[in-house]
Each structure stands twice: as structure tokens, then as C-alpha cells.
Amino acid sequence: MTNTKDVVEKFNQAVDINKEYTKNELCLILNTVYKEVYSKKNEKKEKRPPTKYNNFVSENMKKMKEEFPELTRQDLMKKIGELWRKQKEDNESKEKETKEEEIQEKDIQEEESKEEESKEEESKEEESKEEEDIQEEKKPKKKVTKKNK
Asked: What angle do CA 93, 95, 97 make, to 5 degrees?
């Protein structure tokens, strides 16, 4: 339902049809119902959690006020913005470095696993060759005889 329908329905429920109301009384009832309906709608909305920037500003505003009491709020916000940018750049470069390190580690691990796999394959090939050799040794040898003509 729409908010207007809610307000009208609740207003109809709140008003006694058999009673005479003054204009002010009806306005008071309507205002009460209106606030009730719209406050319920607003309660359903959840506040967004603060962003990293919001948290950074709230944490650093007091420190900046203490360091620079002569600055206006606007100037303080500029300084905090500069700090934020520097910190963000530092964090991004650190994240980039850690990602590169992780990639290098993965590459090294992949190379090591490939080497291990190749060693395993070589050892399996050697084992299979040895088994073939053993099988050949077990087979009876055919005697070769020359026929004279």
C-alpha cells in the first residue's frame, strides 16, 4: 500500500464517526496518524555504515584541531583530505607490492610443483623401463641357428 492509503485508513480507524470534532482536533488526529505512518516507513530504512573516509575524518579531526587550533573547519578538512590521499596512495602501493609478491610466490610454487611432477614422471618412466627389462629377462631367449645350404 502507499503511504497515503495507510494514512487515510488509520485516520478512519482513529476517528469516531458518531462524535463531533473540531477542526483542530481532526488536524491533531491526522498529524498523529501521519507521523505514525511515516515514522514506521523510516524505521525500516537502515543507516549505511560509515565509509573508511568517514571513519578517518572522525578519528583525525580532534588531532588536527589540537595541532592547528587557529585553522577553520574548512582548512582542517583540506588537511585531513591531504592526509587521506597520502595514506590511500601508500596503502595502494603496499597492496600492489603484496599482490606482486603473492604472484611471485605462486609462480615459484607452480615451478616447484612442475619440477616435482616432472621428477615423478621421470622416476615412473625409469621404473617402467626397469620393469620392461625384467620382463624381457624373464622371457626365454630364442636360439638362432644357421641353416647350411
From this structure: 70
